[in-house]
Amino acid sequence: MKWVKFTVKTVTDAEDIVISALYDIGLEGAQIEDKVPLTPLEKEQMFVDILPDGPEDDGIAYLSFFVEENDDGVLTLSGSATDRQTVLDSIRRELDGLRVYTEIGEGSITVSETEDIDWINNWKQYFHQFCIDDLLVIPSWEEADEKQRAGKILHIDPGTAFGTGMHETTQLCIRQIRKYLTPGAEILDVGTGSGILAIVALLYGAGHAVGTDLDPCAVEAVRQNLQANHIPADSFEMVLGNIITDGEVQNRAGYERYDIVTANILADVLVPLTPVIVRHMKEGGIYITSGIINTKEDVVRQAVEDAGLEILEVTRQGEWVSVTARRNVSG
Hints:
Blueprint (H helix, E strand, L loop, with lengths): L1 E10 L3 H9 L7 E4 L5 H6 L14 E10 L5 E3 L2 E3 L1 H16 L9 E7 H4 L10 E3 L2 E4 L14 E3 L12 H13 L5 E5 L5 H8 L4 E6 L3 H12 L7 E5 L6 H7 L4 E7 L2 H11 L3 E13 L3 H10 L3 E8 L2 E7 L5
Parallel strand pairs: 8-9, 10-11, 10-13, 11-12, 13-14
Antiparallel strand pairs: 1-3, 1-6, 2-3, 3-4, 4-5, 7-8, 14-16, 15-16
Helix pairs in contact: 1-3, 5-6, 9-10
């Protein structure tokens, strides 16, 4: 299988903002190359005592996104057929929009091709076990560190397109899930990806979960992660499709059914999603959102309030925001 690689040259300070903007047009799984020094935690996770000195940070970052290319040259982006020029034009429009209010540096774009072998497994060398509070997150190719067995263990293999739990947005969601989860709760995870949020909820006592996603690869990723965590397959129902616009997906998910709905997506998706998702929540149900860059916090808060939900709290980690709200009992 071939992939077309779109690489944006930007500045390190704009990495998250550029990635967020390009996620909005369907580009996912950003590969980041920069010279930012490793943090103490990152050094610790590399399991070496002494690291060689790296190059001096020059403030430049290269962000690469991979889009699947068929034999006939057609690209597949978010499940739809497209072509290189269309993707390139979309990236340029997003970058031009960002320049209006933030410094993104050169903003040049290069296009190249790569095979699976070049990148599909390389990320594994950077993903090591780590903790989210007392939850130990560990990939299948590592043994659990006995010193970190303070709480539960989550075995997660994200596959080629989904998250590991290391990103701030996922950690924000996990903490909120643990805070608001009740035994036997029904969970809906929109944009489930690797299934990490729903699986965490099941590990901590949820009764059943439904996950929706646009990417067919999510089905296998979820299946493997359920198996790795010894969770019965019938505890998690996978639904492919867009719950915002697809009535069949909405019907399969069910209405007024869920105690907790999680959506770790992006602000521009959360805005149209929120009024739709209210119909799937029980009265008193909790809505946990993340994937919100701090510059778009107000937009999401407004969408949540406009949908008739009560904002319970807003939590933050780095440049990212999570909004937690409740559907109050009517009457």
